[in-house]
Amino acid sequence: MIIDCDIHPYPSPERPVERYIPPEFREAVRLGMDVAPGSGHANPFGVNRRDASCIDPKQTAVDLLDKYDIAYGVLVPGGMNVSLTRSIDVGSGLARMWNDWTIEAWLNADPRYLGSICINANDPANAAKEIRRVGSHPQMVQTVVCGEAEHLYGHRYYHPIFEACEEMGLPFAIHPGREGAYDSPTPIGRPSNYIEWHCALPLTFQAHLISLVLEGAFEKFPKLKVVLIEGGVAWLAHTIWRMDKNFKALRSTVPWLKRLPSEYVFDHVRLSTQPLEEPEDSDHLLAVFDAIRADRTLCFATDFPHWDFDDPTRALPRGTPEPLRKRIMFENAAELYGLPVPSAVADPETTTRV
Amino acid sequence: MIIDCDIHPYPSPERPVERYIPPEFREAVRLGMDVAPGSGHANPFGVNRRDASCIDPKQTAVDLLDKYDIAYGVLVPGGMNVSLTRSIDVGSGLARMWNDWTIEAWLNADPRYLGSICINANDPANAAKEIRRVGSHPQMVQTVVCGEAEHLYGHRYYHPIFEACEEMGLPFAIHPGREGAYDSPTPIGRPSNYIEWHCALPLTFQAHLISLVLEGAFEKFPKLKVVLIEGGVAWLAHTIWRMDKNFKALRSTVPWLKRLPSEYVFDHVRLSTQPLEEPEDSDHLLAVFDAIRADRTLCFATDFPHWDFDDPTRALPRGTPEPLRKRIMFENAAELYGLPVPSAVADPETTTRV
Fold it and tell me: Pick from A187, A233, A247: which is nearest to B207 by CB?
């Protein structure tokens, strides 16, 4: 049994997203006021698999959910990037558009689809309103933002968003998007090609996580969960080791932290697997899994229909013990999002939606 | 037997560095034209151990080299930051000042000290001249630059420097310095405290390494060696795994690469150990050591006299096999820098200076 934590639905002529632009922003969008900076990096072969499509919920259910026995699929739409819209109000309007589209075009089409609430993170008060507006929809399971951002996500600027997430019981998810649109996508400068940009994406995730943990987000919002989607996973080992080591020497500089940084991570942070690192010797990855407590922290994802899709039947390293496989493929995400075991195979003793 | 790959010597009233300002830059320095931006992050307790000093070569030899039986100690002076000097010419003049000071004040004082050539990386032609000017000194073993930079170090802007390093047989070393002085020290924004900044330093190293490998520096300069000092080591595992995985799908976008990215790393890149990650379970770090081929890539360092000094008798994880310990503590650096086993314990079969 599988939960896929990263599926990308696209609008199509049959299911246009523009239909859901809030009326007061129609003219602004018609005038091109929905512009946002791009990263300047694109896969020259296109971002989607040539044999796969994700514009029709029924077809995607057949091609992905049915084919791989996926019980739930978490949708991450392009609206995760609306925070970069130059016009702050239009950006917030676009967030509403994406969420209404997600509900009508996708969530209503199949109960296995779960939604991610798009917000304009650069309008935190409005973002919090949007989370409260659509967050009670039974298939909306989290809020999602892109990796590129005005501030590191541990910055207090974002607190109204975390407050709303906590109140609605929804995790705050970060997915790659537009890294390099504001400043360079590395701490130094701009890579000159796509593969370099792509290899550097985990830097953004490391930076956001360090910020969230060390600026005390999980002390201020003790029920907040953070999901790091498509950012890689193996970097978590060195990141928690370095935070814990430095904390021992410098804890008086962060008096708001009451526990080791790694403890906040294990309790509050989950990572989706795709694109999973693939060392030559899979035991190396299994050792990292052990170090990062993959039995609690990792949630499987395919990234369908993108070029670097991970096949559920082959994604995990050779030698993954069966109990760990179950945790990663289903149970961790079921606990994170409060999802019941599907009724056909339901066991009354297992997780139920809270 | 030990080689310490990161010792920080400081000027003092007895050994002032200003004495070595090239005459044509004295007036400029007097007028304050040696200004450079700072990172805005400082350890509130100071960067140096309160019980240690590194201003007197004889005393440091007693306190560090003699005490721990260190056969060679590689000096990394503050001049590694001169690339950030606003006046490019003054920056290049300061590089000469630091190198002449290193030779007279430290290398002449004890043959166990080895020097790092400071350069103004933002004046690549002049930097190459400086490498050729002092690079033949028998105790000068590498060129060093700071992590903060105008460009990622794989950028062709720096090729004249790599050409000079290759010609002189000197590795190109990168050491943390002033991260955040130009743009923010993360891909996103500025951390609000020192511990967060310090935990993010490995991001800069990951970015530079990805750039060097994927932009083809090691194909263009097949004899170039790169040393990553004080940037942590455990992040190397996920970085090579991700580069190798992406290379398999995207190799046609980087046709200048003829081998897996990890192969360039194992042949061309060395990392100094301090500050070594310290997981709760040392087996996790030993598994990472295996993945990153620590028996070839890691070189021990103390970072004396800085606050996070690693003690040679305790730095390596519990359970490090003796042959691996020897590789990390002495042999890898001896091969990298071409250093003979000291004569008192010399074995004619072992490495000799090339």
Answer: A187
The yes-or-no verdict on residue A354 having pLDDT over 70 is no
A40-60 pLDDT, tens digit per residue, is 999 999 999 999 999 999 999
Tokens representing residue B195 in the block: 């511990």
Q: What is the mean pLDDT of residues A228-244?
A: 98
When pLDDT is averaged across residues A36-42 and rounded to a whole number, the result is 93
Q: Which residues of chain B have pLDDT under 70?
A: 344-354
In the chain, the amino acid numbered A349 is E
pLDDT of residue A343: 78
Contact A184, A203 (CB under 8 A): no
Which chain B residue shows the shortest CA-CA distance from A147?
A: B188
Given a cut of 50, is residue A352 above it in pLDDT? no
Q: Which residues contact B279 (CB under 8 A, 6 or more apart)?
A: A237, A241, A291, B285
Q: In a mutagenesis test of the A interface, which of B201, B204, B212, B241 is the best target, namely the one with the most A β-carbons within 10 Å?
A: B241
Distance CA B325, CA B310 (A): 15
What is the per-residue DSSP string for B219-280? HHSTT--EEE-SS-STHHHHHHHHHHHHHHHHGGG-TT--S-HHHHHHHHEEEE-SSPP--S
Q: Which residues of A touch B279 (CB under 8 A)?
A: 237, 241, 291
The ipTM, to two decimals, is 0.94
Residues of chain B neighbouring A288 (CB-CB closer than 8 A) = 237-238, 284, 287-288
Type of residue found at B278: E
Tokens (6 digits) for B44: 């509130």
Inter-chain contact B187–A200, Cβ cutoff 8 Å? Answer: yes
**How far does the CA of residue A235 sit from the closest CA of chain B (Å)?**
6
Min Cα separation A43/chain B (Å): 9
Greater confidence, B157 or A350? Answer: B157
Single out the residue of A37, A22, A45, A148 nearest to residue A93, CA to CA.
A22
A192, A210, A279 ranked by CB distance to B215: nearest: A192
pLDDT of B343: 78
* H-state helical runs in chain B: 26-30, 57-60, 67-68, 88-101, 124-134, 159-168, 194-199, 201-214, 217-220, 235-250, 261-268, 282-291, 294-297, 322-326, 332-337
Q: What is the pLDDT of residue B217?
A: 98
The partner residue sitting opposite B215, judged by closest CB among A179, A196, A284, is: A196
Taking contacts as CB-CB distances below 8 angstroms, the residues of chain B near A151 are 188-189
Q: What is the pLDDT of residue B340?
A: 96
**Nearest CB partner across the interface for A232, out of B193, B242, B247:** B242
CB pair distance less than 8 Å for A192 and B185? no
The yes-or-no verdict on residue A168 having pLDDT over 60 is yes
